Amino acid sequence: MRPRTFFEKVWEDHVIERLAGGWDLLHIDRHLLHDMSGAEGLSAIEARRLQPATPELAFATPDHVVSTRTGRTGASFPAGEPGWRTLQRRSRESGIRFFDLGEDGQGIVHVMGPELGITLPGTTLVCGDSHTCTHGALGALAFGVGASEVAHVLATQVLLLRRPEPMRVRFDGDLGFGITAKDMALHMIGRLGAGAGNGRAVEYAGTAVQALSIEERLTLCNLSIEMGAKIGMVAPDDRTFDYVRGRPFAPRDQYWDQAVAVWRALATDESAHFDLDESIDAASIAPMVTWGTSPEQVVAVDGPVPLPQSFEDAVKRRACEAALTYMGLTPGRPIAGTPIDWVFIGSCTNSRLSDLRAAAVIARKGKVAPGVTAWVVPGSERVKRQAEAEGLHEIFLEAGFQWREPGCSLCVAANGERVPPGARAVSTSNRNFVGRQGPGARTHLASPAMAAAAALAGAIVDVRRFVA
């Protein structure tokens, strides 16, 4: 057999039938449902008088359109209540495991899936959300699907797909002081471009990736879609197995040993071919912050806002001009020192316990600057409870941050929670698109520690000043 990549091994293990024109019929092992696309998918099959083919392989939780304010219910955001009620009702009628507000297991789908052991190495996993690539950090072949595909998987547990070309990004060397997986991802997108991964499945490798914790790998894989890739993966290793072991939906007893033996064989073969192979020196990465309206419009925090004429490509030059106008920035000036109005620490990119711990280290050092609104939104009920057990919420509250309930919140602004028009926010989320956090909102993406530092300084600032 020819040498194969890790991605190819998992894909081929799930092919039911090869069809003409390069199409494969793929079995789907896990299906995550939320209160937007998940509710729509369940309604779609109900309208056709169908039932989920294998409800035990689907897991549902509200996250996108529910409020995150203290004391919230599913009806706290009236426009989101129908999605919550539909997801709740149809999940319970169909025998799908449903994790409701306030219950252990509720949270952002890309946070609760890994922490419950729903996400497993070597499995296929889909969700009606583009950041499903997050789950590839555990060695799953995970990707987002559209509303019609959500319904199709519910009804059949299969999908008809074309196999993406494999791509590898290696990060070798040691990360510098204060550098995080978020910085790695933003540096990569800025260097390679937002379209570098189009039509490809990306495997992250190299010594710097191997040294990352699983939660850091989840952040790295989460941003694969921002490079155009539908899939981002890290081959499972002992760190992966230690993370998965003992979680509620992970294999147990003799099945655990059998599973690990299979997972170990998934590593990429030494001479496997990649359609594109990139290498990045981890030591060259600085704390990163976006300046524009695409994740590829990013700069080191100690660097300047770029000049439009620095872009040789005319399309990128015009994009730079438009972004600078929208963001209200002056080209050539340092990005550090730019005053900010809001800080958001949360989202499926950076709302796990390690993210909150990193932000709390900074929050201990001062108070939120006057005029700045700062939110901390845990990624799941389990993260919230663990953070409160450690007293992290008290650190944030003492420093002047708001401590909220689990959900997507300000990442997507689909639940009534928005950054006001014209306000400038430092956000740990994944997208800085025009209007992403609310009409007219100006978003700078950064790591949790960078966001916390900005909250205290009242401006974009190099976090290394706070931890040196």
What count of domains describes the coordinates?
Answer: 3
Low-confidence stretches: none
Cα separation of the termini: 52 Å
Rg to the nearest angstrom?
21 Å
CATH architectural designation of the largest domain: 2-Layer Sandwich
For the sheet with most strands, the description reads: 5 strands, parallel
Structural features:
Aconitase, domain 3; Aconitase, Domain 2; 5-stranded parallel beta sheet; 468 residues; single chain; alpha/beta; 3 domains; globular
Please characterize this protein's 3D structure:
With 468 residues, the chain is an alpha/beta fold. It folds into three domains: 6-164 and 237-264, Aconitase, domain 3 (2-Layer Sandwich); 166-236 and 268-284, Aconitase, Domain 2; 288-467, Aconitase, domain 3 (2-Layer Sandwich). Helices cover 32% and strands 17% of the residues. The chain contains 16 helices and 19 strands. It has helices at residues 6-13, 37-47, 81-94, 109-116, 147-156, 181-192, 207-210, 214-222, 238-244, 254-264, 314-327, 353-363, 381-389, 392-399, 448-457, 464-467, and strands spanning 15-19, 23-27, 30-33, 58-60, 97-98, 124-127, 141-144, 158-162, 165-172, 200-205, 231-233, 276-281, 288-290, 298-300, 342-345, 373-376, 402-403, 424-427, 442-445. A five-stranded parallel sheet has the order 5-4-3-6-7. A five-stranded parallel sheet has the order 17-16-15-18-19, covered by helices on one side. α2 (37-47) crosses α3, α12 (353-363) crosses α14 (392-399) and α12 (353-363) packs parallel to α15. It is globular. The relative contact order is 0.13. The model has no long low-confidence stretch (mean pLDDT 97).
